[in-house]
Amino acid sequence: MTDTEYHFYSSDPKKVIKELGADILREDLNKMLLIRNFEARAESAYQQGKIGGFFHSYSGQEAIQTACIRAMGVKNWYIATYRCHALALLLGAGADEIMAEFYGKVTGNAMGRGGSMHLYTDRLLGGFAIVGGHTPIATGAAFSLEYLGKKDEVALCFLGEGAVAQGAFHESLNMASLWNLPCIYVIENNQWGMGTAVSRAICIQPIAEKMASSYNMKSYTLDGMDYTNTYAAFKHIHEETLQTRRPVLVEAVTQRFKGHSISDPGFYRTKEELEKAKQRDPIVLLKNYLIESNMLTEDEFKEMNKQNIEIVKKSMEYAEKSPAPDPLTLEEGVFAPEDENIMGY
Ligand SMILES: Cc1ncc(C[n+]2csc(CCOP(=O)(O)OP(=O)(O)O)c2C)c(N)n1
Is residue 331 included in any domain, yes or no? Predict the structure, then answer.
């Protein structure tokens, strides 16, 4: 964590726990456990050579998207970076289809053609590999909501702090503000853009707090490790955006517990730094809130974890057994027309 002084959205964990109640909170803890276990086991499959391509873990950041979707619901436009496994799971893609996608199988989420960085649902416009490249698409999604008069929906754009230095980010926010578009840009500041510390990449901090006024936007800073703070803030931001139909810049301060991608041993930070970050593991924090509120016991937590491991193991069996795509279908699913006449010339 940098020395930056953050001013987090003010919230009371007890109030959030009471408002949401045991069933919902256990459901969300369960989702966070699924995400954690799913990625941990997919990583081991990757190391065994069963999965190819890139792989970016969301481990440590789970509270942010879990709380966001709890607060805002599924029925919005969502868009993400390559770090998109959790969002796909949260928006309804099953563990089986995502694991099969990792394995490159035809039963996969993108028919085995996208891999780990390109997952979709009917509400997730995709995971995108070009840093900052998806921000204009989120702005466009927000434009479509206004154009079609869908006043009960917003667009959510998740990006890393590294994307803030990209020109596309600036253009997207400028246009969203000029045109009054209901787009919520969520910078998940996990302190590192690959091996570059945020303080060496972004000239101003805290990012959202200091940058938002350049775009005539409001900003919010969230404690991204604490589900209760993240939920309370997203709930407020959602209600406000539905009313104002204005864009907002959000910064969720977080930590990733793994390297940038699976091939990154993370030598740029010390073991002590990582251990310190893990002391605020979002899963353990939420679990402890629930235990303190008599909504969960340690044994129930262990059982929950076990059940999620079973789901993940089954998804791996499903992926193993699924067939690879037929090479004859290689050209299917691309935009280039097969027949020149489709374009009328
Ligand atoms: C335009 C562009 N430049 C560089 C890269 C290489 N690259 C991939 S991820 C990454 C770091 C991005 O960090 P951040 O935006 O903070 O997201 P995080 O990985 O931390 O979630 C870079 C530089 C890229 N994919 N696209």
Answer: no
Q: Please indicate whether residue 130, judged by its CB atom, sits closer than 6 Å to ligand 1.
A: yes
Res. 96: pLDDT tops 70: yes
Indicate which CATH number applies to the domain containing 25: 3.40.50.970
> Which two structure tokens, joined as six digits, stand for 252?
């969720």
CB 282 within 8 A of CB 256: no
Q: Is the CB of 287 under 6 A from ligand 1?
A: no
Q: How far is the CA of 127 from the centre of ligand 1 (A)?
A: 13
Helices (H) and strands (E) in the chain, counts: 12, 8
Q: What is the residue-averaged pLDDT of the chain?
A: 96
Q: Is 131 in the pocket of ligand 1 (CB under 6 A)?
A: yes
- CB of residue 86 inside a 6 A radius of ligand 1: no
Residue 164 CA to its chain's centroid (Å): 16
For atom 6 of ligand 1, which residue has the closest CA? Answer: 131
The reported pLDDT for the residue numbered 341 is: 56
Q: Is residue 6 part of a domain?
A: no
The pLDDT assigned to 340 comes to: 56
Domain count, the chain: 1
Residue 308: what pLDDT? 98
User: How far from chain centre, in Å, is Cα 288?
Assistant: 23
pLDDT of residue 62 exceeding 90: yes
**Structural domain for 123, as ranges:** 14-265+273-322
Indicate the burial class of 186 (C-beta count within 10 angstroms; 0-12, 13-18, 19 or more): buried
Does the beta carbon of 162 lie inside 6 Å of ligand 1?
Answer: yes
